[in-house]
Amino acid sequence: MKKKLGLCLVIILIPVIVLSCALLESFDDPLAFTKNVVDAAAPIVEASKPIQNEEEYYIGREVAAIILSNYRLYRNKQLENYLNLICMTLVLNSDVPESYNGYHVAILDTDEINAFATPGGHVLVTKGLLACTDSEDALAGVIAHELGHIQLKHGIGAIKTNRLTGAAIESTGTMLLGEKNKEAIKFLEDASKEIVTTLINSGYSKTQEYDADRFAVRLMAKAGYDPNAMTEMLKIMGEKQKNDHRGFGKTHPSADSRIKYVEMEAKKLAGNYNRSARLKRYKRNKLK
To answer: Is the Cβ–Cβ distance between 147 and 215 less than 8 Å?
Structure first.
């Protein structure tokens, strides 16, 4: 852990050191010095601005396109419509009922147990994860968890970090001249890409996953769904994932650890959620 922290600090400090050296070279010329400072700071100032809803949507659409280059879409209009109606029921009961281009759920044609939420409102759920559900309430739990990542801005947080890293590299580049300096910039770019790739492959932090579960349980109850259905779904996932380290098994905390948090939260929201009223609808629309 200490070695990783040390490496991160070195990577962060390199642009600062190089930038300082470049500034010192122009220190004898006050006008040049001032211009260099302004030019170098501009990308960082721009990158630090909040990401707008429209930007968030287009970033999310690009992320979805990358995911869809690795997975095929499963086309089942009836099931797609059903999942999107559940999504809208949840969204209308959330604190962020509107997004730039709305919320959309699609199905990925794979038995891998996984789901992806992109900034702006895209939810991509695998057939493998849908097979872990046995009720509409459980489906609502799957979608609500992904909505948690979207509305809690987990994806945007990682993107903003990367955006600022890129801006720091660009700022350093404005101060430098010559091939040797280009090599230094290339090193910084590659290091940044490697960090982002590791972040994506590793998934969100445990804290963020537990936060998304907590968000999901509360939203389910608010929308009239039984939050205990999420515990049941996680138990099925845990059984199916014992020897499968893809998808959730690779990027999420264990199902057992998540169940403990979900159960604690669900106890606070006890009530009569009338699940049987939705059972016929689930059987009519579920994945065949």
So the answer is: yes
- What DSSP line would sit under 224-279, residue for residue? T--THHHHHHHHHHHHHTTT--STHHHHS--HHHHHHHHHHHHHTT-----GGGGH
3-state DSSP assignment of residue 49: coil
**260 is written with which tokens?**
């403990």
Q: Which amino acid is at 247?
A: G
Q: Kindly give, in sequence order, each residue whose CB lies less than 8 Å from that of residue 141, ignoring residues fewer than 6 positions away.
A: 133, 216, 217, 220, 225, 227, 229, 230, 233
pTM over 0.85: no
Q: How many residues does the chain have?
A: 288
Residue-wise pLDDT for 13-67, tens only, equals 444 444 444 444 555 555 554 444 444 444 434 444 455 677 778 777 777 787 7
Reduce the DSSP state of residue 125 to 3 states and report it.
strand
